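QA checklist item 7 of 12: single-chain prediction sanity check.
[x] sequence parsed
[x] length recorded as 605
[x] structure emitted
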Amino acid sequence: MLSLTPLKTRVAIADSKSAGTWVDGFELVSGPGDVPAAITLAVGVDGTGAACITSLSSTDVANAQWRHRVVYRPAGAAQWEQPVEIVGFSGASRSVRVTDVAVAPNGVAVVLADRYDAPPDARIGSLFVSSHSPGGSWTTPQQVTSSVSGAAELGLDAAGNATIAWVHRWQTVPSMLHSIRVVTRTAAGAISPQTALTKESGSANSLSLCLAVNASGAAALGTQVISQASQANVTTRPSQTGSWGPFAPLFTDATAASSAPRSVAVSPGGTSYALYWRQGPFVVTNDVIGMSRCAAGGAWVSPTNLSVPNMQMSNGLIAMYGEDAIAVYTGAIGFGGGNPGIEILQAGRWRSSAPGPEAPVDLVPQGTRRLLTQVIGDNAGSVVVTETVFGGTTPRTFVLTFDRVLPIRFRLVDAGPANAVVFSRDGFTVATAGSDNTARLFHTSNGQQRFTVTHTAPVNAVAFSPNGLAVATASDDKTARLTTIGGTETLRLTHDDRVTTVTMSADGLRLATGSADGTARIAEPGSTNPPRTLDHDGAVHAVAFSPDGTRLATACNDGTARLFNTQTGAQLLTFPHDGPVHALAFTPDGTRLATACHDGTARLF
């Protein structure tokens, strides 16, 4: 808000620069008939940004109409595109409108926004979805439902396929009753039929909603099911195209006077976490905050309290750090009997290897009321919190970064000497190549072993696919293999001698190997095309794709580095050296090649 008299507002998007400064990259200031009131923002791992801006038609909030506009910023760009309206001014509403935004790792952005079609107090409307692909524009909004009544949430997998869930009004008279419905939407825009996850008969009623989807499409959803009391229920889905399981109640009317889910999250490996608020069971003021989790394909474990008793919860969110969950929440300790309590902002961690969450820690000094907007965990164990602080006369928004607030260090255990180690692109997994005939994958969050790839001789090299969902291995058993994170072998290349090296192109379409048999080979996973064989006059020690994947460089024991066309296998250039060449690498733009030679030199071509 810029001023009260006259009322003038502004929404903006700022980027954090060096020395902790913030610089506005986009802003929208109110004008006649257009009063920006809210903004929802999401940023992808590649820096792609998307936001939805909600505006009022006038400063008469009780009777104003609402509309939604969207903006997009491509990865690496400094400027945001011009706003595009996806939902025009609709019926007047006294309730806050529904919006959600998500950006997939591939730069696909999806926005969910509602349109209010009913009288001001009816609290029901339509839900629309639009998407923006890199290099494209916002798609024509598609109507998902005409009966959203309250919350609606959106989640994306790595390809930009969406899962959309909302509170659905299934009965209006004689009383308003609600259910939870979901649809999926492919990155190409195909929307599935609606599925009701909770009952739509009798007096069945479900109100709140929280949704999470991981990169593989595994999902978790929580809601509050109304029976004699209101209790937290959770369910999971194994994949984007899989089926939702039945809801599991975290509590019954005998174990809680009331309960509700506040946040859910899904780890890269498919473990689901839920953060809940619980009251009672015997004293209605005995509030606690806690967590439960469900391993992929398993059942939800018994809820575990996280906070101290008599902890009134304002709100809370879960951020994932690899396979570990970090719950951040606000509330008040010691409330009740007219005592408002002491306001807190705390975080608690549940390591994937532990049976329950660790004791929470204060992130800031106690005493000031706060409301969380967003919580993000990065690959280094830091937590970024966006919050509204209600100290003083005017609420203010802050972004706080807690560097390694919950640190972790561990030793990876490998049987026998390790020959190579590599991180996945997202940093959540590390792979080792071992002399014990195995490649092992570990969670970087806790050091727990994820799975192994077994050969019949020592493993010399290991490489991840660009999306992190598969790992390539090279072994003395004369084979190179491509194995999914789930443990399924999808490709095997056989040489006439030990395989010394393996790599994958940046687009994931090609895999290259080098062998002591004097050849390098290029294969196309998932294709019926036979591998191309590139002949040399000695053992091949290293291979590297150019950034665009059109060329392959090889380092050979015959004293040469060579450059090949990856589509045809034709040799393009030879770089002579005075001894065996052991390693090489392209510059990021692919215009130069560096080599390391046994003659004591490194060279740049």
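[x] summary fact logged: The first strand starts at residue 3 and ends at 4.
[ ] second reviewer sign-off
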